[in-house]
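Risk register update: the risk of archive-format incompatibility is retired. Evidence:
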Amino acid sequence: MPLKQGTSLLHTQPVYDSIILPIAAAGVAVGLFFAIPWAGLIAAAVPKTWRHTNLVQASRMERGNEIQIDSLSMFFPRTAEAGAFATMADMDAVRAGNLRLRFGGDTDFLKVPIAAIPNGGMGVTYSTDAALGVEVNFAYNNGVSVAQNRFFLGQPIVLEEQETIGVTFENMDAIVAPIEVTFFLWGPNIRPVR
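Archived output:
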């Protein structure tokens, strides 16, 4: 990608967003990533911070910025912002659905099962006490996003300035407790030199 000297900076900065999926029967919950920007509410009285998203405009990059999306990943934050910590059953319920990646509001560029999207090396590993039937131990994974932990696209998809993007999770199994999910769009990012 050609850059004009003194006007653009090429760097690695994924675009990411977090949502909370509500309690819902199978096939009912729909999650829309990138619809609520930084400082919008992720939950009642909980504004989105840089931990939740890095988009300051709903569904689009800032003017002068673009990203060549070459891979995708996701993870389930270990947080009680959703009202409770995520359980393995709810993580599996989310993974049972499908995702659609859209440009321009209604053009589907990708449709795949959510289970095909690696969790980026970030998240929690649980062990269950079979006698008690409950999760008793957990350990954080290292959070390093290595190539094996991404869903790579054959050709990059370029998200240009002010072009809209949306990622939808749908057709999931029943979700018993609200669950937070963070989704990443990886690739070279271009921004104006400031």
